[in-house]
Amino acid sequence: MNNGIYAKNDVEIAWCPGCGNYGIRNIMLKVFTELGIPKEQLVYCSGIGHAAKAPQYYDLSYFNGLHGRALPAASGIKAVNPGLKLIVESGDGDIYGEGGNHFIHAIRRNPDITVIVHDNMVYGLTKGQASPTSGLGMKTPIQIDGVWETPLNPLLLALTMGAPFIARASADEPEKTKEIIKAAINHKGFALVDVFQACVTFNKINTRKWYKDNTYFLEPGSHDAGNKQAALAKACEESPWPLGIIYKNETKKTFEDNLAPYIGGDRTPLYKRNRKADVVRRLLEEKT
What we know:
Blueprint: H1 20-35, E1 42-46, E2 61-64, H2 70-80, E3 85-91, H3 92-98, H4 100-109, E4 113-119, H5 154-161, E5 165-170, H6 174-186, E6 191-196, H7 208-213, E7 215-217, H8 228-236, E8 241-248, H9 277-287
Parallel strand pairs: 1-2, 1-3, 3-4, 4-6, 5-6, 7-8
Antiparallel strand pairs: 5-8
């Protein structure tokens, strides 16, 4: 494929051959190209893990932070410059495990960011431990008797916390996944896309064939994504898991819209505004 202007081709990609991360990378490069977003308006954030390396393989500005800390960084960047397109791309362990608390509270604030989660149901970078989405009974080098903790349902959690855009997709369905992610990026508010992708090295259960056999796409007209009760029902479905846009709410105000500097219609980014040194000095003196 033609990777276009958004691909970084002069670096070695540290993913195993056959990893589903490659599929997501190819999808994202097509998304950028088709949306035509100027590179200077795109900013990526990620945490730690194999999926979190993804921003290093795009020719874009990015912030690669601590494990699980991508969402607060993305929220802060968006607050300072609301005109940017903020995308968080990381793994199920990073976002739902180490970053679980940030995930919940980012949804509550509703920043205008898109969160792409590589969900392979295992920790790949640290050699195959169970992740928050690993299935019951899955045996790993750490969980030698099998996983007994209830797997996290990220779509259900996001929906009950008030996320205004929730979807699930698959790395092995590039065209449909591309359209889902484009819709997520164009949505104003917190948008979650949980993308199933196979870890070919450490997860021998949830293989590419397993995802194919245990998912189905929502057909046009078969699901009302604007109906929260219908979305709750779909979010609870398992074996097979539904793929597509589960919920979409266009009316919820974003984190940036609720910030005092932007109330009233002035969208001048904070970094471009003149700061009154005397006011800042007085505030600091009052706090001390």
